[in-house]
């Protein structure tokens, strides 16, 4: 906001950061625009957790902190009782959490699509290590170059555009009903995507910034 008030160009606006950082509001916005996201429910009322969990199938429920990163605060509950216990624990410690359907057919893998200034500059498939469902590379997941379909590309570009992000990492799951947006990262890491794709994405971001800088003093 300080940069914006001073008229200094930034690759990330404060509004876009706030929209993307909050997993719940991000999912709400994307769903309102017609993009598919996993079924998501949020409540801090412990007395209704049991009824709410009935909305999910037998595959399990993913419970995640609304503002978590790198897979921290993301737990897979394989039973209703386990899910209730986790939700109650988060609630008692005043942690904002949400329930989300577990996409079993994704088989512990997701697709990361990296976007710079309205262009897809790299994509990879991240696969969770054995015994883990979170595909984050910080959690020991592996990554490989993965081409994306036209539909997946369109969904990713629309998601970044709706949130106002010029640099974004869009994570999606391949489900039976098509691509589901898991989350959109406003400040995605570069090490994993560059190491996997061998693309100089940092250079592309720098070029984007240079094209938009008004005065050389900010280069």
Structural summary, described in words:
It is a single chain. Helix content is 33%, strand content 25%. The protein contains eight helices and nine strands. The protein has helices at 2-5, 14-21, 23-32, 49-53, 80-92, 150-163, 191-197, 201-212, and strands spanning 40-41, 61-65, 74-77, 97-101, 109-116, 119-127, 142-145, 167-175, 178-185. The strands form two sheets. The protein has a five-stranded antiparallel β-sheet, sandwiched between helices. Strands 1-4-2-3 form a four-stranded antiparallel β-sheet, with helices on both faces. A hairpin with an 8-residue loop joins strand 2 and strand 3. It is globular, with a radius of gyration of 18 Å.
What brief labels describe this structure?
single chain; 4-stranded antiparallel β-sheet; 219 residues; alpha+beta; 5-stranded antiparallel β-sheet; 8 helices
Low-confidence stretches: none
- Structural category is alpha+beta
Q: How helix-rich are the residues, as a percent range?
A: 25-40%
Order of helices and strands: HHHEHEEHEEEEHEEHH
How much is the average pLDDT? 88
Q: What separation lies between the terminal Cα atoms?
A: 19 Å
Q: Going across the biggest sheet, name each strand in turn.
A: 7-6-5-8-9
Beta-strand content bin: 15-25%
Radius of gyration, CA atoms, in whole angstroms: 18 Å
Helix segment count?
A: 8
């Amino acid at each position: 906001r300080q940069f914006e008030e001073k008229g200094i160009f930034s690759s990330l606006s404060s509004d876009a950061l706030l929209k993307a950082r909050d997993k719940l509001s991000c999912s709400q916005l994307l769903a309102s625009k017609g993009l598919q996201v996993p079924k998501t429910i949020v409540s801090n009322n412990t007395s209704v957790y049991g009824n709410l969990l009935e909305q999910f199938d037998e595959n399990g429920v993913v419970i995640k902190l609304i503002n978590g990163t790198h897979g921290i605060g993301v737990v897979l509950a394989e039973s209703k009782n386990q899910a209730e216990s986790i939700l109650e624990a988060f609630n008692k410690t005043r942690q904002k959490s949400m329930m989300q359907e577990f996409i079993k057919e994704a088989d512990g893998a997701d697709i990361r699509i990296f976007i710079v200034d309205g262009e897809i500059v790299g994509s990879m498939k991240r696969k969770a290590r054995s015994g883990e469902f979170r595909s984050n590379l910080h959690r020991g997941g592996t990554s490989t170059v993965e081409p994306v379909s036209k539909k997946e590309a369109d969904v990713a570009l629309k998601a970044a555009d709706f949130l106002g992000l010029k640099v974004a990492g869009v994570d999606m799951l391949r489900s039976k009903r098509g691509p589901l947006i898991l989350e959109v990262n406003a400040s995605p890491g570069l090490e994993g995507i560059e190491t996997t794709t061998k693309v100089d994405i940092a250079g592309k971001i720098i070029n984007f910034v240079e094209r938009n800088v008004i005065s050389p003093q900010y280069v």
